Amino acid sequence: MFxxxxxxxxxxxxxxxxxxQVQDAVKDGTLAxxxxxxxxxxxxxxxxxxxxxxxxxxxxxxDLGVIExxxxxxxxxxxxxxxxxxxxQEAARDYAARIRALKISPERGLELARAxxxxxxx
Length: 122
What we know:
Shape: elongated
CATH superfamily of the largest domain: Winged helix-like DNA-binding domain superfamily/Winged helix DNA-binding domain
Number of helices: 5
Largest sheet: 3 strands, antiparallel
Structural class: mainly alpha
Strand content: 5-15%
Strand order of the largest sheet: 1-3-2
Distance between the termini: 26 Å
Number of domains: 2
Radius of gyration: 17 Å
CATH class of the largest domain: Mainly Alpha
Helix content: 40-55%
């Protein structure tokens, strides 16, 4: 699970620290499309900051197209790329959810996906 952190001694405002942290995690693949982010209140409590700080960061990320807010259904990392790439990301998210529901280990799930794609075992 991704761990959010803020540096209280930094001159960079906390909402900007969070915005940059999420963007970096999305770029390096740590936060994949479809990953559900904590609620504003839960993350504010976890990081010991005002909910407004988190809400402001989430708004910035949404304006940048990095995340999508779906009201009571939560906030998720957006899909990106062309239509085929977005559909592939959604299919991967659905597959991961199905593997978790079946209580299959991530390692075994990857083996099954590789086999289905015709990739040789590494």
